[in-house]
């Protein structure tokens, strides 16, 4: 999940896709490339006691042609997320952005994941909300598909536009020419009508055409924050709002894996 603005529901979408894949009995690997580690925390990995081998350590290694090293960094998610494997982030991961010694760091995650994801499995990568950089590029080089969540406000619009620019650069430079943009997905969408919401939605639709996926919109419901605080999957919550979010995440998951 990628946007170059924070607060647009990127980590929420990542957790939702993990929950949706888990409900479908798909093997799931969750990779956190954001040094704030909010995705890792929601999956039950405590920020104050990260695993001995994290995403930071994985990207610091020079693989020297080896593949599959991500298996050594994978740890089980919390009890509520049974069956999910996590490559956790930690604050030290930010150091990789300025690591001038790490030649070819941007390709290390792709090599590390090679052969690790089962054929019927799903890998979900949560990216930091920043313009380019080594962590973002590492994830975009490793990914097959990317979803861009966009709140229907100015931050969402800017984040989506800048994310697409970075994605196009990765494609055009030949670093991952086959990377597919699933779409720009309206995120944390409030109910009712709003002049700004409608204007931003129309702008995104007019600017990006079929890339703007209004059919995959994620509604704003308070149950999302409740499950985040409790570190449990949205699929474990009851009620109409939880079901609406579960359905939205499932549609996005299938839009990404159906191709």
Tally of contiguous helical segments: 10
Lateral strand order in the biggest sheet: 2-3-1-4
Which stretches are low in confidence, meaning pLDDT under 50 for 5 or more residues running? none
Major β-sheet, in short?
A: 4 strands, mixed
**Tally of DSSP β-strands:** 6
CATH architecture: 3-Layer(aba) Sandwich
Radius of gyration from CA coordinates: 17 Å
- Reading off the top of the CATH hierarchy, the class is best stated as Alpha Beta
Q: Into how many domains do the coordinates divide?
A: 1
Structural class estimated from helices and strands: alpha/beta
Q: What's the helical proportion of residues?
A: 40-55%
Shape: globular
What is the string of SSEs from the N terminus onward? HEHHHEEHEHEHEHHH
- Portion in strands: 5-15%
The averaged pLDDT comes out at 90
CATH topology: Rossmann fold
Q: Termini separation (Å)?
A: 17 Å
Under CATH, the homologous superfamily reads P-loop containing nucleotide triphosphate hydrolases
